[in-house]
Amino acid sequence: MSIVSMSLDVAPDAAVLARPVLDENGNMLVAAGAPLTAGLKSSLLRRGVMEVAVVEANANASAAADSRDAVLARQAAEARLLHLFRHVLRSGQVSPLFQIVSRYRTEGST
Amino acid sequence: MNTPSMQEVLQGVRELPALPAVVMELVQSIGNADINAEDLAEKISHDQALAAKTLRLANSSFYGMSRQVTSIAEATTILGLRTLRSVATAAGLVGGFSAAGSKSFDFHAFWRHAIGTALCARSLARTALVDEDVAFTAGLVHDIGRLVLVSGFAASYEAVIAYQREHDGLPSEAEQAVFGFDHAAVGGLIAEHWKFSPAIVLAITQHHDPQADRKSKLADIVHVADNMAHALDLTHREDDLVPPLSVAAWSRLGINEELCLQVFRATEEQHGAVCQSLLT
Fold first, then answer.
1. Share of chain B above pLDDT 90, in %
2. pLDDT in tens, A31-74
3. Are the Cβ atoms of B238 and A42 closer than 8 angstroms?
4. Is B12 among the domain residues?
5. B51: Cα within 13 Å, side-chain hemisphere
6. What is the CA radius of gyration of chain B?
7. Does residue B186 lie within any of the structural domains?
8. How far is A74 from chain B (nearest CA, A)?
9. Which of B233, B241, B245 faces A97 most closely, judged by CB atoms?
10. Mean per-residue pLDDT for B98-126?
11. Which ipTM was obtained for this model?
12. pLDDT by residue (tens digit) across B142-152?
């Protein structure tokens, strides 16, 4: 995966974060794998975040690299969902929401 | 540290500074079709901060208007009175609490989640044939009890946050451990005090545990919307947590995957614009 650091205000919408965004205290604001949106960029800029590391969107990148990036993004999304649903999963509850949001995050939504 | 009893919280709720009169009037009129549009628009216009925030949200991409509106009267005509009332209520409520007094409570994340829940509730209401604007408002205020506790009992709420961090649990579990009651009960009290409609009071009180009742469709909607908003990771907080889902409420609403995906997409498309309008 090719990672490039860039100024947040010029980062393209839909660019995928290659590293988590942290605040000044080291608390995670956004997990790696999350796509940038206009709203997210505004929110981060307001919180003083000036630079982000994103997966390089290179039109010439090989299909293999794209595939690796997709796998990494999917793994990051899965890890984040497991973390968000940790209470539900620990207690063994059935959650149809977990299954659906997992597919939404990892298989894309078209 | 002395933790307040439910009686003291109730007293604190009664002594809370009132919301601006126009916001109280908006809150109390939700669900009432018999209101005077011109009168309401004039009252909103007289509160400059409220009018400015209302226009900002009305002009955001959330409502997708083809041209900018520049006055509350114009917004009433284009959006309709019920939607304008919901927009102005949101603007008034979000501006009605301050972060003063709390070191650890993340107000920004609180409102990001509340707005996410409001948007999910609005989308779910459309399919459930429930008033979308009422659902939006109910979603926005479902956790209002947390704000009351943070605003009125900041020191005790620091203990709640510490307990939650230590046990990696839900806010309601931490509140039960520290106070002996949770924000849903307190939220019901404040909503009654502010004369919200009984359906919204019930939705706030039951948002963690909706009961099967023909009057509680709104409670089912807010409960599922709360879960969805957490699952969509809208707070940007590392420690966010999806609460237990009532499968009974989910089933009563007849939710399927297609509807879920519609709600997720609509919410993620609109969330940034609404947050920008209300939180800046």
1. 45
2. 777 888 888 888 888 888 888 888 876 644 556 666 777 788 88
3. no
4. no
5. 16
6. 18
7. yes
8. 15
9. B245
10. 88
11. 0.84
12. 999 998 888 88
Query: Distance between CA atoms of B80 and B66, rounded to whole angstroms?
Result: 15
Among chain A residues, the shortest Cα distance to B279 is held by: A43
Domain boundary among B95, B124, B140: B95
Q: Where are the beta strands (DSSP E) in A46-103?
A: 51-55
Structure tokens at B194: 């502010």
User: A49 contacts in B (CB within 8 Å)?
Assistant: none
Which ranges constitute the DSSP H helices of chain B?
6-15, 21-29, 37-46, 48-58, 72-79, 81-94, 107-128, 132-141, 144-152, 154-167, 171-178, 183-193, 198-205, 217-231, 247-252, 257-279
Query: Which residue on chain B is closest to A98 by alpha carbon?
Result: B231
Residue B13 lies in a domain: no
Contact A43 B236 (CB under 8 A): yes
pLDDT for B24: 80
B177 vs B16, more confident: B177
Residue-number span of the structural domain to which B207 is assigned: 97-279
Its pTM stands at: 0.78
